[in-house]
Amino acid sequence: MSDGQLKAYYVYSPWLRIFHWLMVMSIVVLFFTGLYIGNPFFIGSQGLEPTYAFSERLSMETVRFIHFAAAFILVCAFVLRVYGFVVNKGDRLLPRFWTKQHWAWTMDIMLHYMLLRASHKPYLRNPLARMSYLGVYFLIGIEAITGFTMYVMVDPKSIWGQSFSLVNSLLINEYYVHLIHHYVAWLIIIFAVVHIYMAVRADFMEREGEISSMFSGVKFLAHQPVDLGEIATEEDSLVRYWDNIARDSRPHSG
Amino acid sequence: MQTNNSLWELFQKRGLSRRSFLKTCAMITGLLGLSPLKCTEVVAAAEEKNLPVVIWLHGHECTGCDESFLRSQTPLASDVILNMISVEYDDCLSAAAGEPFEQHFKEIIEKYAGQYILAVEGGVPLAENGIYCMVGGRPFVTVLKEAAAGAAAIVEYGSCSAWGGIQSAKPNPTNTVAVSQIVGGTTIVKVPGCPPIPEVMTAVIMHFALFGQLPPLDTSGRPKQFYGNRIHDTCYRRPFFDSGMFAERFDDAGAKAGWCLYKVGCRGPATYNSCGNMRWWNGLSYPIQSGHGCIGCSNNGFWDNDQFYERLPNIPISATIANADTIGAVATGVAVAGVVAHGALSVVEKYKRQRQSKPEEERRP
Ligand code: SF4
Q1: Contacts of A38 (CB under 8 A, 6+ apart)
Q2: Sheet strand arrangement including B86-90
Q3: CA–centroid distance, residue A182 to ligand 1 (Å)
Q4: What phi, psi does A212 have (nearest 5°)?
Q5: A156 CB contacts (<8 Å, ≥6 apart)?
Q6: Residue A24 burial (CB count, 10 A)
């Protein structure tokens, strides 16, 4: 049903959107502080005593503190993601691996991305993207586990130290934990590069409000999306969106 | 043999005072990493427990662990060997040799079956039926299995017997494995290190001797009191690390001033051992104190984590000098280039499509 008119679909709850931007900020901070921690340098005057650097405010300790704080923010932000998942259908982006349809759609979008198919079916969230989100959560999970292993082993007697020390022995030794932490960090950055590109490209190619949807929660499609029933119902999405608009633009009568 | 004596009986025989016995017990308590309150238990055990029989086997290794053990200062290795334990068999420390010695081995594993402590130094080569390490004309793996069958406990001394050691480095031509991969079913404690700290070696054996059980172990099977902490968390150069002061090279001013060795490859942040707090030779020094970064010699697989003077290892592809961060940066660069190219193609695609669809629109009435 294409009548050339754009329809608004409310997809993402505020929880998901806040989570998304918290994740973006913490990953940026984690990545750059992580690069410093892996290969530190020092600018400023250094004396012979290890007290000089603290006045310069770029000490390993400070950078590590920022890294750990960002890590905690990232992990805690997942609470919002889970809450959004529970309360809003649009946040349930778990790819439906078990359906044939999922794989047919994946094929459709892949052919499009390989520039072999000029256009693809209209999706609220295309299945390839949904799979990649699952993938990036998985990568973040690895970062969290390896990161917290290194973090908590400062106090091996604590309950955390005792539970996470298993990771060290499973991964042969803690050196590999460091190594995996490094590699996976880069994988996440590569994801980010592709992700940002895909969002910009979608805006350019399809003009469906891809980027703004992560701020407003709303996407605009000219055609009825094929995955409408999966991640949002039509009335639901429209009604809620227009309700909001109406409420916002209602004149404040005395 | 003093096998059926307790430590206290031994002291009496030698005409030593009760006072020096108690002093020894207090020292042992500290050495074992126990709280001072446990001293009374140590005294009780030292009064009653018979000195343990120890069989010490040497496998695929360099005997460096023995060398380290001999330099134990507290207690003196000679005290341990001659007074505290009864070493019945040790290829390196025994005066006897040859066939009578091997005969003695057979006798003691029968006589003390189920009672002796088996200390093993060295990995177990399995390739070609174990012929890469022969002891008394027999493959080491056979001897080990024989001795392990009647052992009350097995102590894996050194990284070779605990993890496989340097000879198991890729591609491991002799197929060397750790002792615990060959013998199971008994209590096994790992005392890794290349070599382990001598005081740790003696302490572990004393702990078993006195209490009849192994000290509490961590998830990898190492005694917690000695392998609980990272060297990095106990290192005296840590303040330099925290304030970001690093030796960049071994000949720069930082190295001279004793700054942190993180950037010249120190493995302290990933290594569990007591070097930072106990140090070596009665607390004299340890590698980092002498100006060389830790190489993580008590870690499983440390031999494959080269280069030792870089923070990250080079990837195992020959003739490549790249580590995780170089690879990551290159891959990210490729990804950026890829999306730019893809973007350009997509733009072209879109304009082509628009041009094709325009005439159609114009044809419409
Ligand atoms: S010298 Fe090694 S163990 Fe010591 S603080 Fe530096 S990195 Fe850590």
Answers
A1: A182, B311, B312, B325
A2: B86-90, B53-58, B117-121, B153-157, B187-191
A3: 19
A4: -65, -20
A5: A162, A165, B218, B224, B228, B229
A6: 15
**pLDDT classification of B1: cutoffs 50, 70, 90:** very low
Token code pair at residue A243: 């309700």
Confidence of residue B363 (pLDDT cuts 50, 70, 90): very low
The overall longest dimension of chain A from CA atoms, in Å, is 75
Give the span between the Cα atoms of B186 and B175, in whole angstroms: 23
pLDDT (tens digit, 9 = 90+) per residue, B5-55? 788 888 888 888 999 889 888 888 887 878 888 888 888 888 888 778 889
> Residue B125: is it exposed, middle or buried by C-beta count within 10 angstroms (0-12/13-18/19+)?
buried
Cα B76 to Cα A95, B1, B71, B83, B287: the distances in Å are 66, 20, 7, 10, 22
pTM of the model: 0.86
What tens digit of pLDDT does each residue of B173-223 get?
999 999 999 987 778 999 999 999 988 888 888 888 788 788 888 888 899
pLDDT along chain A (254 residues), means of 10: 67 91 96 91 66 68 93 94 85 85 89 83 87 94 95 89 87 89 94 94 86 87 81 61 64 50
Residues of chain A found within 8 Å of residue B220, distances taken between Cβ atoms: 165, 168-169
**Helix, strand, or coil here: A49?**
coil
Query: What band does B364 get if pLDDT is binned at 50, 70 and 90?
Result: very low
| Closest-lying ligand 1 atom to the alpha carbon of residue B238 | 5
Ligand 1 proximity of B89 Cβ (cutoff 6 Å): no
Q: Which A residues, 119 through 138, put their C-beta within 8 Å of a C-beta on chain B?
A: 119
Dist CA B174 CA B133 (whole Å)? 9
Residue B331 has pLDDT above 70, yes or no: yes
Q: Which of A40, A48, A178 sits opposite B263 (nearest CB)?
A: A40
Number of structural domains chain B divides into: 3
Residue B353 lies inside a defined structural domain of this protein: yes
| Token code pair at residue A212 | 């703004």
CATH number at residue B318: 4.10.480.10
Indicate if B253 and B121 belong to the same structural domain. Answer: no
Q: SS3 for A20-37, per residue?
A: HHHHHHHHHHHHHHHHHH
Specify the 3-state DSSP secondary structure of B344.
helix
pLDDT at position A57 = 66
B244: chain A residues, CB-CB within 8 Å: 40-42, 53, 58-61, 63
B249 and B183 together in one domain: no
**CATH classification code of A7-248:** 1.20.950.20
- Find the domain containing B56 and state its range: 51-205+214-224
Q: Tell how far CA B297 is from the center of its chain.
A: 6
Q: How far apart are CA A227 and CA A32, in angstroms?
A: 37
Q: State the SS3 of A150-213.
A: HHHCCCCCCHHHHHHHHHHHHCCCHHHHHHHHHHHHHHHHHHHHHHHHHHHHHHHHHCCCCCCH
Q: Which amino acid is at B96?
A: A
Task: Indicate if B297 and B186 belong to the same structural domain.
Answer: no
Domain boundaries, chain A: 7-248
pLDDT at B88: 80
Report the C-alpha gap between A202 and B261 in whole angstroms. 48
Domain match, B79 and B196 both: yes
Cβ–Cβ below 8 Å for B244 and A53: yes
User: What is the best residue among B274, B286, B294, B309 to mutate for testing ligand 1's pocket, by most ligand atoms within 8 Å of CB?
Assistant: B294
